[in-house]
Every structure is written in structure tokens, then in C-alpha cells.
Design goal:
Elements lengths: L1 H77 L5 E7 L14 E6 L7 E10 L2 E9 L2 E6 L7 E6 L2 E6 L2 E6 L3 E6 L2 E12 L3 E5 L2 E17 L8 E7 L2 H14 L7 E7 L5 E7 L2 E16 L1
Parallel strand pairs: 10-16
Antiparallel strand pairs: 1-12, 2-5, 2-11, 3-4, 3-13, 5-6, 6-7, 7-8, 9-10, 12-16, 13-15, 14-15
């Protein structure tokens, strides 16, 4: 009787061991598939999410530039600045429920005189045989910083009428500002529209959407006969964190317009580790068409 009882208990122990081993094997298979999913599929999925967000952000900044340009054109045609526009910006990329959190972004609005973005225009013009100096400062910037975890980190900015995209290995002007040079004979004519942002500086971080309310407050347009005698120079200085993109754009613009190296000079100077000035100095200018647009931007969460 004791032997039978002992065997009975031994059979029960063998069944328990088999069940435990089976459960462990099932868990190992599940954990293997889970590990493959989190280490391979999740990063690819998140990289696609962040890439899609950057593409959408670039399109939204292009739309922002287009709306500001439309406000200026409408005001020049109708003489009215009563039209307001709204431009949304998506801050961050979507996440994956349970497995990966969304990637947040940071939007910064810096009006003229604040932040690391600005522009200054200097030249002399003829008024009743006397020279009158012009020295005007303005500018401002809207910038989105995307600290992507799976895709490359990027910055998208609108400043001085240009849309710029930057990442660690380079930067480029994606949408050109309203500046043109034209060489006719020995004289050079310049057209430049300066975008001056006004309002209250703001920074918003997160993963949702932020709206920018755009209101063109005032626009002034003048055409000047530059200089008197041999003083026919125009200086346009950009203060920016995107100096490489500006330097490349200005050089390409002057080259495509047929200017020779003796007609212009582009000089970059360091303000600090992150900020530079890029000065475009054009010689022998005939006329300067100088437009200034004051745009009030309100950040709405």
C-alpha cells in the first residue's frame, strides 16, 4: 500500500514537470517574437511616423510662406490689410500604443528684435542732389525643432521670407525669399521684400497642433535711385542660425543673375557659437525696390 501511494505521487510530479516545461517553452517563444517585434518592427514603424511628420511639417511651413506672400500681394493690389489667415503646424510625430510614445516637437516664435534672427538694410539714395541714408532693421522667425529618436533630427524655419530646413549634416533654403538682383549693362537693380514679425514671442512644445494667426498690419513699398556719384552700394545683413544656407543661396542668386565677382561680396561673421551674420554687399546699384511688410503673428494652442 505504501508502494502504490508512492508511485501515485511520483506520477503526479512527472505531470507537473511536463506542464511547467511546456509553459516555459511557450513563454520563450512568445518572448522571442515580442523581442523581434520591439527590436525590429517598432523602430521601422516609428521611423516612418517621424519621417511622415517631417514631410508634413515642411509642407505646413511652405503653406505658411505662401499665405504670408498672398497677404502681401493682396494688400499691394487692393490697398487693404483687412484679410487674416490661419496656418496650423503639427508639433510632433505619432507614437505606437503600448510600445512607443509619441515624439514631441518645439515651436518657437521670435518677433523682430528678439531671438537669433534679423535683417538690416543699408544704402544711400539721391534726394534733390543730396544723399539720404537708409538704415532699417527688422526680421523675425518661426521655427520648429523636431528631436526625432528614430529619424534624423531636423529644424524647419521661416525667416526673412525664406523657408529653411536644417539637420546635423547640413542645411538648405527650400523656399526662396523675395529678393532679386538684375544686371542691366553695368548697373544692378535690386528688389527686396523684408518680412518683419511683430507680436509676443512664444514657445510651445508637445505632440499636438498649434495654430498661427497671421495679420498683415502694414506694408510700405518704395523704389530708390541708389547713391550719388560713386557711392552706389547696398548692404543687406542677415542675422541667423542658418548662415550656411543663406550664404549658399545668396551666392547662387548672384551667380545666376550674371553678376561677376567684382559686383558683389558675401561675408559671414560669427556672433556666437550658434549665430552668424551674413552680409550681401552689392556694388554699382541703379535702383533699389524696397518693400517692408509688418506681420503680426499670434500663436494659438
Amino acid at each position: 500500500m505504501n508502494r502504490l501511494d508512492k508511485r501515485h505521487f511520483l506520477r503526479r510530479d512527472e505531470e507537473g514537470v511536463a506542464s511547467t516545461v511546456g509553459t516555459l517553452m511557450a513563454l520563450l517563444v512568445f518572448l522571442t517574437f515580442l523581442s523581434m517585434f520591439t527590436n525590429s518592427y517598432i523602430p521601422v514603424w516609428m521611423q516612418d511616423n517621424e519621417r511622415a511628420h517631417m514631410n508634413a511639417a515642411i509642407n505646413q511651413f511652405g503653406d505658411l510662406k505662401g499665405k504670408i506672400d498672398n497677404l502681401i500681394i493682396t494688400a499691394q493690389v487692393t490697398g487693404s490689410t483687412s484679410i487674416h489667415m490661419y496656418s496650423p503646424i503639427t508639433l510632433g510625430a505619432a507614437g505606437i500604443p503600448v510600445f512607443a510614445s509619441p515624439t514631441a516637437g518645439l515651436l518657437t516664435y521670435s518677433p523682430q528684435g528678439m531671438g537669433d534672427s534679423g535683417v538690416k538694410v543699408r544704402f544711400n539714395y539721391t534726394l534733390e542732389t543730396a544723399m539720404t541714408p537708409v538704415s532699417e532693421s527688422g526680421g523675425g522667425m518661426v521655427e520648429l525643432y523636431a528631436p526625432n529618436r528614430y529619424y534624423v533630427q531636423q529644424w524647419v524655419a521661416y525667416e526673412n521670407g525664406a523657408m529653411i530646413v536644417k539637420q546635423q549634416d547640413g542645411q538648405i533654403v527650400r523656399a526662396f525669399p523675395s529678393i532679386e538682383v538684375e544686371k542691366i549693362g553695368s548697373a544692378i537693380n535690386i528688389k527686396f521684400t523684408q518680412i518683419d514679425f511683430i507680436g509676443t514671442n512664444a514657445s510651445v512644445g508637445g505632440t499636438g497642433s498649434v495654430g498661427l494667426n497671421l495679420n498683415l498690419v502694414y506694408i510700405d513699398s518704395q523704389t530708390y535711385a541708389v547713391g550719388y556719384g560713386t557711392d552706389k552700394n547696398v548692404n543687406i545683413t542677415f542675422t541667423t542660425r542658418y548662415w550656411t544656407a543663406w550664404q549658399q543661396f545668396l551666392g547662387d542668386m548672384c551667380s545666376k543673375a550674371g553678376l561677376s565677382p567684382g559686383d558683389y561680396l558675401i561675408r559671414a561673421e560669427t556672433v556666437n557659437d550658434n549665430v552668424h551674420t551674413v552680409t550681401l554687399w552689392i556694388k554699382n546699384v541703379g535702383t533699389m525696390t524696397y518693400n517692408r511688410a509688418f506681420v503680426n503673428v499670434g500663436v494659438q494652442i
